[in-house]
Amino acid sequence: MTTDQTQAPAIRVRGVEKSFGDLHVLRGVDLDVRAGSILALLGSNGAGKTTLVRILSTLLSADAGTVTVQGFDVATQAADVRRTISLTGQFAAVDEVLTGRENLVLVARLRHLKNPGAVADDLLARFSLTDAGDRRAGTYSGGMRRRLDIAMSLIGDPPVIVLDEPTTGLDPQSRIEVWQTVRALAAGGTTVLLTTQYLEEAEQLADRIAILHDGTILQNGTLAELKQLLPPATVEYVEKQPTLEDVFLALVTEAPTSTRKEA
Amino acid sequence: MSTAALADTSALTGRSLRHVLRSPDTIITTAVTPVALMLLFVYVLGGAIDTGSGESYVDYMLPGILLITIASGVAYTSYRLFLDLQGGIVDRFQSMPIARSSVLWAHVLTSVLATIVSVAIVIGVALLIGFRTGASVGAWLGVAGILVLFTSALTWLAVIAGLSAKTVDGASAFSYPLIFLPFVSSAFVPTETMPGPVAWFAENQPVTSIVDTVRALFAQQPVGADIWVALAWLVGILAVAYGLAVARYRRRVR
């Protein structure tokens, strides 16, 4: 993908500050996310990732600074921003009492789409949830639930999607499924902002990586650019041991698919 | 309200009605306590109570029992709202382009509908144990109107509680004083039998005027000035609770 310098960023954050009482969570955040790219926002717990995401999605107002999404200001054009952006992950819940299908129909109705039932069936099929569609979301496994959550946020084809820690608490297989979904989204032209505390996830998915620390963006660049910040690599010979994850994935993916259960 | 706001409210009301239908115990437990109280008062205590009105005791105390039913029913509204806020589903709704107030209105409409069902169950049991009324259609509509108004006023109070609560228990605890209020009113015994200060409180708190109005409507008697006092209380509580609830919601979700 080539960088198109003339295109305005899909998300533009300038000088955003936010405090809760004496706690200065964000102290002047600047960040751009190019349209159609995946940006991973890395940070430890409490770094302010969720606060920034809540400001982006109009759930919280900033104390200072400006945020625009596709050119709409979150403070003054909140309704337009809400039409543009979709939120999923850590705190955007699914309704556990409703079935998977009812969750999707509800969101389709709230987005005033013409044929909510058809939209729901289509997404159930896309996310391999058709068989589970009539079961309550409360009975879903972690991976299925996260897929439902992402499916809900795709309704209405929003151009910008925010995934707040989308794989926290998932097993390795489900995590890879979510990664595939995110890659497919970006390939389709959706702008993705992803927050994560897993460095590997950022390496795997992101076009650019921004590190949020102490309320500001410490570094922002491609993986290669970030790696150049450290002294050049020295060559060492080490015996290549498979990681436990390699072993686990080799064992479970070689098992016949018919015996694999999603539970 | 605009068409979009109505559509959003109806989609979200459908959602919370499903919640109620899938845990019907909330409607049943709402009706069980008032029914037990009614049986206790009619068959155990009622024989010793002289209401001085000549009507059967179940006829005398049913209005108070209905208010208790409503007060315990709205506790589930603050409970459901609290869980929605805590579980993050409200964040999801508010990050979408929906009418801002539709989340609250959906809970309020669900509360009114669920409470009507509980009240109907209690009236059904009352009829079984001897409650009789010759009330006209107009009088029944009057009773229904007052009860719906009472439910709406208490529901908006429940919304404030649900928005302000820090724990699940706190979310429903606000209803205990409301459930208790009919006991210190004309609902079960005439206020003249109470000692001075208690009688004064009972005479001047909202439940007495509401109970007296509903009782008069059921007994086909003139409602007198009571209905205006009752309506003033109900509209007043409704307006104040609505204003506070909406202000609190705006502060909370922006």
TrEMBL record, chain A:
It is a peripheral membrane protein. Pfam families: ABC_tran. The lineage of its organism: Bacteria, Bacillati, Actinomycetota, Actinomycetes, Micrococcales. It is found in: Cell membrane. SMART domains: AAA. Gene3D superfamilies: P-loop containing nucleotide triphosphate hydrolases. Residues 11-239 form the ABC transporter domain. Keywords: Antibiotic resistance, ATP-binding, Nucleotide-binding, Transport. Belongs to the ABC transporter superfamily. This is ABC transporter ATP-binding protein. The keyword Manganese does not apply. GO terms for molecular function: ATP binding.
Automatic annotation (TrEMBL), chain B:
InterPro entries: ABC2_TM, ABC2_TM_bact-type, ABC_2_transport, Nod_factor_ABC_transporter. It is found in: Cell membrane; Membrane. It is a multi-pass membrane protein. The chain crosses the membrane at residues 27-49, 61-82, 103-131, 137-161, 173-191, 227-247. Keywords: Antibiotic resistance, Cell membrane, Membrane, Transmembrane, Transmembrane helix, Transport. PROSITE patterns: ABC_TM2 (PS51012). Belongs to the ABC-2 integral membrane protein family. This is Transport permease protein. The lineage of its organism: Bacteria, Bacillati, Actinomycetota, Actinomycetes, Micrococcales.
